[in-house]
Amino acid sequence: MYIVLLCTVWLFYPEFTACSKDSIWCSVAYWATESAGRIGTPVIILITSFVFAIYAQSLKAKAKTFFKTFIVFSIVLSTFAFLNEHLIKSTLQVARPSHTYIIRQTKSLARLDSLYTLPVTERRKFFQGLIDGDTISFRDTDARVLSHWIEEAGYSFPSGHSFNAFLLGSILAFSIYYMANRNLRWLYILPMTWAVLVAVSRVAIGAHSALDVSIGGALGILVSHTLLYFSVTQALLTHQRHAERG
Fold first, then answer.
1. 8-state DSSP, 86
2. For the purposes of burial, counting CB atoms within 10 Å of the CB of 144, is it exposed (0-12), middle (13-18) or buried (19 or more)?
C-alpha cells in the first residue's frame, strides 16, 4: 500500500487546485484528512481500544485492555507529534504548499521565512487577511480547505497526518490479521487503504507536498514495525492473542 501511495502522489500528482467548491472529491479529501487530525485520531484510538477490549474475557480484563491500548497509542502519537512540531519541522523549516500558493496568488511581498517567525495566531491572521482581501483567486476553492490552510500555519515537512495514519494503519492491519477468523483476514487491507487515502488527501488539499507525505508515511511504517517487532511493545499495542500466536 505504501507503493500505491508513492505511485499516486508522484505519478498522478493530485494537485490541490482541483479541490474546488462543491466537488465530491474535495469533500472526500477533506474528511479523509480530518480522520487523521486532532479529533479523528483520538476517535480511531478509542474505537481500536474498544475493539481490543471486546476480546478480553472478564470485565476487569476488558477495562484493563481498553485503557492500556488507549494510553499507549496516545503516548506514541503524542510523542511523535511533539518531536515533529517542535524539533523536526522547526529544524528543517519547509514551507507548506498552501502558504506558498497563497503568497503567489495574492502577489504578496511577504517572505515566508519571516512569517514563520511570528506567533501562530499572528500567522493565521495574516493568511486570513490575504485570503479575505482577494475575492478572485480563492472564489472557487472549498471554504473548508481555505480554513484548513489558515489553521495549519506551521511548517510542512514531514507530514504528521501521514505518520499517524500509517502508524495506526499498520498496527490495525496486524491486529485484524490475527484477531479475525481466517475468512475475514483480508480485512487487514482496509486500515492501510485508509492510510493511503489520508496521505493522498494531504497533497490534494495543499497541506503537504508529495515528499512530505512519502516521508511521513515511511516514518509511520518504520515506527509501527519497530514497535511490533519487540514482544514487549507488541503486547502493549495489540491484543494478548497476538503474543500467544507468536
1. I
2. middle
Residue with cell 500466536: 245
Measured CA to CA, the distance from residue 157 to residue 212 in angstroms comes to 5
Computed on alpha carbons and rounded to an integer, the radius of gyration of the chain in Å comes to 20
C-alpha grid cell for residue 165?
495514519
Q: Compute how many other C-beta atoms are within 10 angstroms of the C-beta atom of residue 212.
A: 26
- The one-letter amino acid code at 116 reads Y
Residue-level pLDDT, tens digit, the chain, 246 residues: 889 888 888 887 666 655 777 778 888 888 999 998 888 989 989 988 888 888 778 888 888 888 988 998 899 889 988 888 889 998 999 999 999 999 999 999 989 988 999 999 999 999 999 999 888 888 888 888 899 999 988 899 999 999 989 999 998 888 888 776 777 778 889 999 999 999 999 998 888 999 999 999 999 999 988 988 888 887 777 765 544 444
Q: Minimal CA–CA distance to 112: which of 101, 216, 81? A: 101
C-alpha cell at 79: 510523542
C-alpha cell at 212: 512530505
DSSP 182: G
**Distance between CA atoms of 214 and 191, rounded to whole angstroms?**
17
Nearest to 73 by CA among 65, 83, 84, 62: 65
Report pTM. 0.87
Tell me, rounded to whole angstroms, the distance of Cα 46 from its chain centroid: 16
Terminal CA-CA length for the chain = 24
